[in-house]
Amino acid sequence: MRLQEIKNLDISGKKVFLRCDFNVPMDEYSNITDDRRIKSALNTIRYCIDNDCSVILASHLGRPKETFEEKYSLKPIAKRLHTLLKQDIIMAKNVVQDDTLELAKNLQSGDVLLLENLRFNDGEIQNDEEFAKRLASMADIYINDAFGVSHRAHASVEGITKYFDMVHKGAGFLLSKEIDFFYHIIHAPKRPFVSVVGGSKVSGKLQALYKLVPKVDKMLIGGGMAFTFLKAQGYDVGNSLVEDDLLDEAKKIMAQAKELGVKLYFPVDVVVSEHFDAESIAKTKTIQEIPSGWIGLDIGPATSTLFELALEDANTILWNGPMGVYEMDKFSKGSIKLSHAIAKSFATTVVGGGDTADLLRITEDEDDMTFISTGGGASLELIEGKILPGVKALILGDEK
Ligand code: AMP
Fold first, then answer.
1. What CATH topology corresponds to 189-383?
2. Which atom of ligand 1 is least distant from the CA of 227?
3. Is 370:345 a contact under the CB 8 Å cutoff?
4. I need a surface site. Which of 146, 166, 227, 394 has the fewest CB within 10 A?
5. Nearest CA to 221 among 369, 96, 322, 94?
6. Rounded Cα distance, 256 and 362, in Å
7. Residue nearest to ligand 1 atom 17, measured at CA
8. Cα angle for residues 143, 144, 147 (degrees, 5° grid)
């Protein structure tokens, strides 16, 4: 699979529509608490500016009710871009109304225009043709650098691509890098290849688990999703998170792994609590002795040691999902220890998923990972072997 990339397009002096993912976390005062997503878009933005382009930036932020809501405005993003790029950012009042189209029309080389939150218009999520056409009408070139939403057939990601031919659209540097990493890790990983999966539910990752088992040498399963597997093995897991309707699927995955000789690792001990509450008493118990009615909220110390040992000979590690409720101090140790173990490994380490990336910020292990993906859902769909709607239109040749 070869993507049309921005570096192979003639963008010099042109007007570029750049779909970014500026969906950053903010506190109640609209202060940006983590600007990593903005920073990772700078490469492509600067490349456009250096090529004398005028740039129209577009993104969504949160889930507004398809109309203007101050708390979802991209104004704080414009401010941060101003600081990072050290230049004025023209902030549009809306997305595709006439005044904004006029602003886009009058842009001069080097100017940067930021559209308001794409999701203030219902046309974005509905992939409305008219809306996509108005977005497209602003520019000569379309660039997608928003991996995190490329699995969604939205107007600014999918619909808009129909209005540009293959020499006028392509992937930005960030999107190319994300796709490259996942493509290689799935098709040609250096072995042993170990995947670590956690997070709350099996359901969200079921298809990815099926696709991963035949590709990996070992799989370490922690987090809430481990309890469905443990229950399927006959353990009494108390009130821990279990998806009873997926017990058979869990058994199938374990049988598939056994048949293929893939080693599966599950928690041998867990940190349990009577309530899902940061203040309630926590105890460490072996999985054979989870007290009736208690909830498993983290992997225990013996599991951390076991997982660390299993990771020791890995040459490629793919990690998605925390090992426990890392948002609460008492249940964060398992995830923190795992993060440190993966960080100190010499393997190629690829981390996907918003929560896992957030965890790395807490553990300060970011710089020691080979690659941190900005898109959780999108990376899972890539692992599942799907061609993302936002990427499909940017693939060169017959491979489409
Ligand atoms: P996901 O979005 O599926 O990757 O899940 C991430 C969430 O899983 C985080 O918010 C964690 O708090 C949660 N989580 C991890 N372990 C558990 C657990 N044992 N019980 C309940 N939730 C969990």
1. Rossmann fold (3.40.50)
2. 19
3. no
4. 166
5. 322
6. 35
7. 224
8. 160
Per-residue pLDDT of the chain (400 residues; tens, 9 = 90+): 789 999 999 999 999 999 999 999 888 888 998 898 899 999 999 999 999 999 999 999 999 998 899 999 999 999 999 999 999 999 999 999 999 999 999 999 999 999 999 999 999 999 999 999 999 999 999 999 999 899 999 999 999 999 999 999 999 999 999 898 888 888 899 999 999 999 998 998 988 999 999 999 999 999 999 999 999 999 999 999 999 999 999 999 999 999 999 999 999 999 999 999 999 999 999 999 999 999 999 999 999 999 999 999 999 999 999 999 999 999 999 999 999 999 999 999 999 887 898 899 899 999 999 998 877 788 888 888 888 999 999 999 844 4
271 lines ligand 1 (CB under 6 A): no
Residue range(s) of every CATH 3.40.50.1260 domain in the chain: 6-174, 189-383
pTM of the full structure:
0.85
* Catalytic (active site) residue 397: no
The span from the CA of 320 to the CA of 356, in Å, is: 6
Nearest CA to ligand 1 atom 13: 200
Helix (H, G, I), strand (E, B) or coil at 291: coil
For 17, other C-beta atoms within 10 Å of its C-beta total 26
Which residue type is seen at 75?
K
